[in-house]
Amino acid sequence: MSNVSTAEFGAPDFDAIVVGAGPAGAAAALELARAGRKVCLVERGPFPGSKNMYGGVVYGRILDTLLPNWWEEAPVQRWVTRRQTMILTETAATTLDVRNEAWGRPPYNGATAYRPDFDSWLAQKAVDAGAVLVCSTTVTGLLRKDGLADGPVVGVRTDRPDGDLTAKVVIACDGVNSFLAKEAGLYPEVDPANYTVGVKETIALPREVIDERFGVRGDHGVDIEILGCTGDIPGGGFVYTNTDTVAVGLVLSLPALAKGELRPEQLLARLKAHPAVAPLVEGGDVKEYSAHVIPEAGFDMMPELIGDGILVAGDAAAMCLAAGIWLEGVNFAIGSGAAAGRAAARAVQRNDTSAAGLEGYRSRLESSFVLADHRRLRDAPHLVMGELAQQKMPRIVNGVMEDLFTVTNPDPKPRLRAVVRKQMKRHGVKWRDAVKDGLRAARTFG
Ligand SMILES: Cc1cc2nc3c(=O)[nH]c(=O)nc-3n(C[C@H](O)[C@H](O)[C@H](O)COP(=O)(O)OP(=O)(O)OC[C@H]3O[C@@H](n4cnc5c(N)ncnc54)[C@H](O)[C@@H]3O)c2cc1C
Fold it and tell me: What is the pLDDT of residues 126-163, one digit of tens each?
């Protein structure tokens, strides 16, 4: 790397520097390299994905255009052919169970994958296209033109002794809490209420035991999203099957967790002991425990996406979709990273990497699922994390199911309407509030 001071800034080392070799960064670097741009992908870990954790499912449709027939070589664990949404109380569970064999054939739908495998594979695609990948290197700050505090971004500082890196444009793909976006002044304020923390155990079990317990065969797998499993703390849970491990985890509101008495590992132990979950995971060896922050509030917490000489993509721009029945971040990271890469390549070609010259990024995002989904579902995180969905709905749903399926002879069977009314009253939910939230949910999800 060259040692270029901001005052001496002349011909830059690269057309573009992409910070972070997660899915967003790899996709950005891939598109820049394909457009013939000189691009450097900087990663603090020893290899892409080495520092990255998530629940475990990649939704690969966004790869169809980037890497046609990606499924023939992507390092997946299992293809998800069964999706469940589980609603729990301390002792009961009601589950919506969806199976679809078509999801187990090309072009597939979702797959469990290990991040070190998946991120390395995707980053290698960028390298194959011509990107320079620099690992074990942490970006420590931004370089500004002429050293001016609010001058255009012209590169990055790294923790390497041999200096800084200069470029016409920097793409911040450094994940949640992006300090680069903050340093660029693109995040006006950081509200802890917008964040959750995800914790996960990876539990080893023999492959045939997983097949048996989860009711799948071959390379098919299961994705279970769980509501009502986090006590007083707003959040949710998940269980995903890999080939010979099961991922079980929780997503927990940060401020509530800080105020609460239970630690994440205690809450996770409680989930693993639940009668609906214990038979799936018991007897396995915990291979790994990991934790990571999630930008939960979606559209409402997004920073400015564009500055002079800088773009922000993926979790760095809060583009993870955490909306109850969906927890999708990798596809949004790839979609936004690719859009940033294309917009940057175009701006470099036109020799205008000012904020105005980079505006193409916004229009690309606006016309894709990335901002369309986030805009439409902007209320979803608030609804899902609200008291009705978190505390009351799980009790009402399980109470109604208990009343419906408990045989009370010699009394006659209760009417559904009466059962619902009884459970709502018991849990202090007024029809007026239920209808209000129902309409809000219908507007959001409908
Ligand atoms: C518990 C949990 C469960 C989840 N489950 C799912 C799921 O099942 N499916 C799904 O699609 N999404 C899931 N997500 C969300 C998903 O993990 C993220 O949305 C996704 O990883 C975002 O990708 P990214 O490339 O933007 O950021 P990241 O994957 O976080 O990558 C950022 C990269 O930048 C590097 N980096 C950071 N700072 C620097 C620096 N200063 N210098 C150099 N490099 C740096 C990091 O090492 C990392 O490689 C989950 C997240 C969590 C926490």
Answer: 999 999 999 999 999 999 999 999 999 999 999 998 87
The number of the ligand 1 atom at minimal distance from the alpha carbon of 179 is 41
Q: Which atom of ligand 1 is nearest to the CA of 336?
A: 26
Expressed in angstroms and rounded, the spacing between residue 315 Cα and the centre of ligand 1 is: 6
Q: Dig out the tokens for 385 from the structure.
A: 């994390």
Q: Measured in angstroms, how far is the CA atom of residue 22 from the centroid of ligand 1?
A: 6
Burial class (CB in 10 A: 0-12, 13-18, 19+), 68: exposed
Dihedrals phi, psi of 307, to nearest 5 degrees: -135, 180
Q: Which residue has the tokens 């999800």?
A: 445
Cross-strand partners of 99: 82
Mean pLDDT of 360-372: 97
Identify residue 329 by its one-letter amino acid code: G
Amino acid present at 410: P
DSSP secondary structure of 94-112:
EEEEEE-GGGGSTT-SEEE
Q: State the average pLDDT for the chain.
A: 95
CA of 295 to the centre of ligand 1 (A): 10
pLDDT digits (tens, 9 = 90+) for 299-337: 999 999 999 999 999 999 999 998 777 899 999 999 999
Domains and CATH numbers, the chain: 14-75+113-188+301-377 (3.50.50.60), 193-295 (3.30.9.90), 386-445 (no CATH)
pLDDT at 23 exceeding the cut of 60: yes
Question: Which pLDDT value is given to residue 189?
Answer: 82
Q: Give the per-residue pLDDT at 382.
A: 87
**Lowest-confidence pick of 1-10, 105-114, 344-353:** 1-10
Q: How far is CA 249 from CA 2, 23, 227, 297, 392, in A?
A: 43, 21, 12, 19, 22
Q: For residue 114, is pLDDT > 70? A: yes
Q: How far apart are CA 24 and CA 30, in angstroms?
A: 10
Q: Which of 44, 63, 60 is CA-nearest to residue 52? A: 44
Average pLDDT over residues 209-221: 98
Looking at residue 225, its pLDDT comes to 96
Let me know: does 284 contact 207? Beta carbons within 8 Å: no
Cα–Cα distance for residue pair 206/154, rounded to 1 Å: 51
The bridge status of strand 165-172 relative to strand 14-19 is parallel
For the entire predicted model, the pTM comes to 0.96
Q: How far apart are CA 51 and CA 291, in angstroms?
A: 11
C-beta of 295 in contact with ligand 1 (< 6 A): no
